[in-house]
Design goal:
With 375 residues, the protein is mainly beta. It is 6% helix and 45% strand. It has a single domain, classed as 6 Propeller (Neuraminidase), CATH 2.120.10. 51% of the residues are buried.
């Protein structure tokens, strides 16, 4: 799949000019705990309970690449970062000078995409996206550090490359048997549990796991058919079934030991067309929960409740819709947390009775972390 989170977020940015409602007086409500972030994406809690956030950056002055939105210039720079936010809301960029490609405005960036800690917070892993054919790294050598999985220590020291996710896609192309599949890689989400590190490659439509024996394909989320949208000059009539790529944007280890994967879906981004998939290593993926739209992240609460983050409430092709955070209990109806609060949310972490969301994840300088009460 040629999935680039920059392009999807660019679509969202064009339709998501929505104000968040104010909390009623005296009632616990959404709280912005950090501002001024550059395209914030995935997040996780570190060794001391601080919140670590992957910032995709704002690109830079080298505008010799292709534009994130297609057509025009895409700008490269070492503006990606990993930022740590303490319990008082103080933020510090503990890893900087990471590769980033963005539009000339600095928005819709590709760069650091997610972070996950294991071994009690003693070791972390973060992904740096690509959103292109891995061969682009040869054409544009400045992007050689993109499309990879990195190790990071609690001090902020980057302890080398743990895996070349884009290189794995180039060598194996796990979704080659799917309709309209291409060689493309965009390492998006990462889950580190014990000695295993799993990555959702949104470009490759695949889940890759790294362990003592090296990388292996955990699974490929299958493509589906969706009705063609009604847009000018589209090559087929509205309603005609067309292949829709899966675009797995999130992966998390569940309380049962299985992996759970959320999908954004590819064009035409059908409303209700995204699912949460369950993967047991060695078995084919199965649909766990359906009826979602543009999923960007997943998290489990300590009680086993699943939380699903959506970038939008409806298809990216259409009128403005806010993001959503949805509680999915083991039994009973789903509920939305703080409706109307989120705009282009891209990352989620849950701690106790609170959810932490990377909001305005497509914007340079305007990104923020929002704390939402879950009870």
């Amino acid at each position: 799949m040629t999935f680039d989170v920059r392009k999807s977020l660019a679509l969202a940015a064009g339709v998501l000019a929505i104000a968040a409602p104010a909390a009623s007086a005296g009632a616990p409500g959404p709280q912005v705990i950090a501002t001024g972030l550059d395209n914030p994406r995935g997040l996780d809690f570190g060794l001391g309970g601080e919140l670590w956030v992957a910032e995709a950056g704002r690109g830079g002055s080298d505008c010799t690449l292709e534009s994130p939105e297609g057509g025009g210039a895409g700008c490269f720079g070492k503006t990606g970062a990993i930022t740590k936010i303490d319990k008082r809301g103080n933020k510090k960029r503990v890893v900087s000078n990471l590769p980033s490609v963005a539009s000339q405005s600095g928005n819709e960036a590709s760069g650091p995409s997610d972070i996950s800690f294991t071994l009690g917070g003693l070791l972390g892993y973060f992904t740096v996206g690509l959103g292109a054919n891995p061969a682009q790294r040869e054409q544009y050598p400045q992007t050689a550090g993109m499309g990879k999985l990195y190790r990071v220590l609690p001090t902020g020291h980057v302890a080398g490359v743990a895996g070349d996710v884009a290189g794995y896609e180039a060598a194996h192309n796990p979704d080659a048997d799917q309709p309209t599949a291409e060689v493309d890689s965009n390492p998006n989400s990462v889950d580190a549990t014990g000695l295993h590190v799993a990555v959702a490659d949104a470009g490759g439509n695949s889940l890759i796991r790294y362990g003592l024996r090296g990388p292996e394909t955990l699974g490929v989320i299958p493509f589906k058919m969706s009705p063609a949208p009604e847009i000018p000059d589209f090559p087929v009539p509205p309603g005609t079934p067309i292949p829709t790529q899966s675009v797995p944007t999130s992966i998390v280890r569940g309380p049962d030991g299985a992996y759970y994967v959320g999908q954004l879906t590819g064009f035409p981004f059908p409303t209700g067309g995204a699912s949460v998939w369950r993967i047991v290593p060695g078995q084919a993926p199965t649909e766990y929960a359906t009826g979602f739209t543009t999923i960007t992240d997943l998290a489990f609460g300590k009680d086993g409740t699943l939380y699903v983050l959506q970038m939008t409430s409806a298809t990216l092709i259409g009128p403005p819709t806010p993001g959503k955070l949805i509680r999915v209990p083991k039994r009973g109806p789903r509920t939305e947390i703080a409706p109307g609060t989120l705009t282009s949310p891209t990352g989620l972490a849950v701690d106790g009775n609170s959810a932490y969301v990377a909001n305005k994840g497509d914007q340079a300088g305007a990104g923020e972390i929002v704390k939402l009460p879950l009870r």
